[in-house]
Amino acid sequence: MFRPGIPLPGTDAEEEQPRPVEDARRPTAAERVRTLAQSSVSALLTIPGAEPDLREPGSGVPQAHAVTPEGDVLLLVAADAPEARVSAYAQDDDLTAVMEITDVAPVSVPHRVRGRAWIAGWLTPVRGEDRAICARLLAEAAPSAPVAGTSRRMLRLEVGECWIDDLWGAESVEPDAFAAAAPDPLAVHEAELLQHLAAAHQEQVHGLCACQGWEQAVPVALDRFGLRVRGWSAQGACADVRFEFAEPVGTVAELRRAMHGLFAAGG
After folding, report:
1. How many whole angstroms separate alpha carbon 217 and alpha carbon 220?
2. Distances 136 to 20, 43, 67, 228 between C-alpha atoms, Å
3. What class, spelled out in words, does domain 189-266 have in CATH?
4. Architecture of the CATH domain 13-182
5. I need a surface site. Which of 6, 23, 243, 259 has the fewest CB within 10 A?
6. pLDDT tens-digit profile of 146-165?
7. How many Cα atoms occupy the beta-carbon half-sphere of 257 within 13 Å?
8. Cα–Cα dist 25/226, whole Å
9. pLDDT tens digit string along 191-206?
10. Segments making up each domain of the chain, as ranges
11. Taking the complete model, does pTM exceed 0.85, yes or no?
12. Which parts of this chain are annotated as the region Disordered (predicted)?
């Protein structure tokens, strides 16, 4: 099994996360990793023997990341970053690396780290004819981080293994499954949608959880299958409840209809 330095999950902030064991429809582990890999969520790139100096702002942190149709992860890094220098002449499986993605809830709740994903593989610079295609993918992922110029380098991480430890649990993901997976269709809107629900629909969200007797109830995660709400009591006890949509949703318009259905049922 390919695993160059992937840390064991569940050993830090995640061990406190509420994780209900429930028979709910859910994105697969491969879809969850792919969603994070194609998001704007902050990541840390580590190369064994060339670990980033975390005292330096932005050290080891790609300016953008995206995924190719073939399932390789693209990384945009500063030209003077250690990972750019170390990988400059790498070929095929010369250089192993691990990208760690930390997913933080976009709303204020206890235990805001919703999970982490690790993507391990082989790192090489993007070369030749691939540069234009990869530049376009990275620009789409992060329009505010210009790809052109001599101050940045594009790197390719050929995936060897993935692991995710999140609100659904801890699972490994094979490269083929990662390549075939699609990101959740609501992911690009999730932060804005959760913040809107927390600010403008607080009473309705709390009403969904009325039987729980919680003092606070905040929407903490959203995907095409449903909404997860985190609640806590005055004593600090914390738990999650999952509300499934009648049908999976793929657009914001469909989500609005699904949320109206949930609120109507919650009464």
Report:
1. 9
2. 40, 20, 11, 34
3. alpha beta
4. Roll (2.30)
5. 23
6. 776 678 899 999 999 999 99
7. 8
8. 8
9. 999 999 999 999 999 9
10. 13-182, 189-266
11. yes
12. 1-33
